[in-house]
UniProtKB/TrEMBL annotation:
Family matches, as Pfam families: NDUFA12 (PF05071)
Subunit structure: Complex I is composed of 45 different subunits.
Protein name stated in the entry: NADH dehydrogenase [ubiquinone] 1 alpha subcomplex subunit 12
An annotated GO BP: response to oxidative stress
Function: Accessory subunit of the mitochondrial membrane respiratory chain NADH dehydrogenase (Complex I), that is believed not to be involved in catalysis. Complex I functions in the transfer of electrons from NADH to the respiratory chain. The immediate electron acceptor for the enzyme is believed to be ubiquinone.
Keyword Membrane attributed: yes
Membrane topology, record value: Peripheral membrane protein
Keywords: Electron transport, Membrane, Mitochondrion, Mitochondrion inner membrane, Respiratory chain, Transport
InterPro entries: NDUFA12 (IPR007763)
Signal peptide per UniProt: none
Location relative to the cell: Mitochondrion inner membrane
Amino acid sequence: MKMAKLLGLDKLGRLFQIISHNGGIRASLYKLYRQDELKIGTLVGEDKFGNKYYENKMYFYGRNRWVEYADHIAMDYDGSQVPAEWYGWLHYKTDLLPHKDPNRPKYKWMAEHKENKSGTSEAYMPYSTVPPKIEAWVPPK
């Protein structure tokens, strides 16, 4: 056992375990490309947008919960795509999963989660009723 650990064979075994957990070499490389890391974890839930949430207590505290964004998002993912209830679980505000929390408020006036569209063509632009201070010159006809 000591010789195997000394030669790093335990790390090699862990690598093969991670690759098989992520679906093989091709799927592991794709996941590494999208997320910059490969992890093994237990799937604890999925939100209605297709994001999957994982946990592995073997990793350091603060790095042992993570989200894998839905495949249809590809490389265009950001933190605003995580709903508030899952955000709370990811950031240790609660240890209860959203679907197992009986005290979670659910009122009909609560708005549905929407991601932040800033920087896109769908960004919010307020309508202005004030005329501009400087207007472009239009030549006479």
